[in-house]
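Board notes (copied after class):
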Amino acid sequence: MHALVVDDSEVTRLMLRYILKSLGFEVIEAGDGREGLAQLKRSGDTDLVLVDLFMPEMDGLEFVREVRRQPSYDHIRLMMVTCANEMESVSTALEAGANEYLMKPFSQEMVLEKLQLLGIGRC
């Protein structure tokens, strides 16, 4: 399985890359939503995207909305990863097209639990 991690924090990308690789994913990364869209176009076979809500250039909501506008990406599972824990932020992300929502700080077990909710589980 192939995953894309889109986050402006290098530390968060490193942590998610480590967790996802330990679960059997091939991982690519992007520092903002625009770069993430470019990576999606280049990779062609992405199954999962973990995207931060707050980023420069293009934030996570804009990224999710743009991905959901393109039917060729309908199969991709989108998980918003952020420290915003208000119910309104969760609702907005899900309404925009995110499939799941992961709160920071997170652990490997939390990521695995969310992947299982998405029907992905261990690879």
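Comment from the instructor: The domain at 2-117 is CATH 3.40.50.2300 (Rossmann fold). Strands lie at 2-6, 26-30, 48-52, 77-82, 100-103.
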